[in-house]
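Ops channel
N.P.: pipeline sanity check, posting one input/output pair.
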């Protein structure tokens, strides 16, 4: 379901959007697609930050495990 809303954008942005080629019929479609793309990137970045935090919290244990595996492989 679409909901009508009002946005205030700079004239420069609108001038750049209007001639933009592609599959978008109008400004609304273009802005919606751009918003979805940005939202997807923001959510991805947040997930990556959480993953990095988990890795950093477990770094010492992971490094010890990797060292043990390397020592075992060398011993073979």
């Amino acid at each position: 379901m679409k909901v009508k809303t009002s946005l205030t954008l700079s004239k420069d942005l609108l001038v750049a959007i209007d001639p933009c080629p592609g599959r978008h019929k109008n400004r609304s479609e273009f802005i919606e697609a751009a918003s979805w793309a940005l939202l997807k990137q923001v959510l991805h970045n947040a997930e990556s930050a959480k993953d990095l935090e988990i890795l950093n919290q477990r770094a010492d244990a992971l490094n010890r495990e990797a060292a043990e595996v390397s020592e075992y492989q060398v011993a073979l």
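N.P.: looks fine end to end. Helices lie at 11-17, 27-57, 59-75.
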